[in-house]
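HOLO CASE FILE
Compound: oxa(dethia)-CoA
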Amino acid sequence: MPFAHITGWGMHVPELILTNDDISKLVDTNDEWIRDHTGIRERRIAREHEFPSTLGVEAALKALQVANLAPTELDLIICTSSSPEYFFPATACLIQDQIGATKAGAFDLQAACTGFIFSMNMAAQAIRSGSIKSALVVGTETLSRFVDWKDRNTCILFGDGAGAFVLQASDKPGGVISAVMHSDGSGADALILPGGGTRFPATEATIHEGKHFIQMDGKEVFRFATRVMGQAVLEALEPAKLTLDDIQWIVPHQANFRIIKTAAKYLKMSLDKFIINVDRYGNTSTASIPIAAVDALQKGQIKPGDKIVLVGFGAGLTWGAMVVEWTGPIPAKKHIRTEPYRLFARLRSLLRRIWRRIEGFLSSKEV
Ligand code: UT7
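Model generated. Tokens follow.
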């Protein structure tokens, strides 16, 4: 049975920085309160021309560059987002088109902030089963568009950004070792974007009632998160036959510094073993785990051979954890430059659109 290795990683965040002081001009809050209660100092906000697919494409191409893998070699793309570009088509298909992943199947997976763990597990299982050889997992968000900038309960928390991992099959042991996934829909109301689905399709009334904004019972989510995070880490370690002593790094979902601190206390682990960058990016939902991991890799914290645990929680309610032995890129003779693929993808996409029109015209003549 092949092993599923993480061979590439990339992140991309918008340039625009929104500080706590900036937010204090919008709602009754202040830098000290936000830092004390969340650990967040600033977050990135997408400009009008930035979307989940555009951020996701940048992260994906960087990840493919690290993996030395051409987009055309990808078998599968899973995109996970709490702020997808459309209801349909899947954001994964937009990314597939923009990077020119000509043979990849692409779909979205929705598990809110836990989406990256669930998606990684699905991609790893597909590789372990032998049905595919490579996969791209992208977590990408422009949640700032769903934030009510008059609600101080939520607008202080969220930020935009994208992170991506490439997974590849190899006979060498390592990579994704184990994972656990959990859900409890009885807590659906605790964190919800009620409008725009089939329960509350967009109408003047739903817009007036603010149903298209994130609604959150912060205390409830906080209690849930502190209860499940440590447990999920221990649960994922069990099938891997590992203990916390074997683990070099924990990469938690970056929602709130206090939640991470409580998880560290529960696990009786030093906070130094936790990768934390919530101060700079806020809560980027599905993108927070890969962004934190890429940050740690760039600082030289995570190294090949390290055993790490990714752990997340979010709306649903959902939570999960994954144990990984970090390997890095598979040594390759060729060196891929991903930029030409972006240009090729644009041209290909344009030609396919034109060809579809011609086909439509010709078939209408035949009828
Ligand atoms: O991916 C998952 C996403 N969600 C989460 O992870 C959210 C988890 N929850 C949290 O992170 C925290 O519950 C919050 C950061 C949302 C809130 O922190 P808290 O320590 O639970 O604050 P609180 O709601 O208990 O409010 C404490 C006080 C209240 O005032 P009173 O009633 O004590 O006078 C609030 O009205 O702080 C007030 N408050 C604020 N003050 C200044 C609430 N929000 C703010 C604010 N600025 N932004």
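CASE NOTES: The longest helix spans residues 339-366. The CA atoms of residues 253 and 289 lie 5 Å apart.
CLOSED: yes
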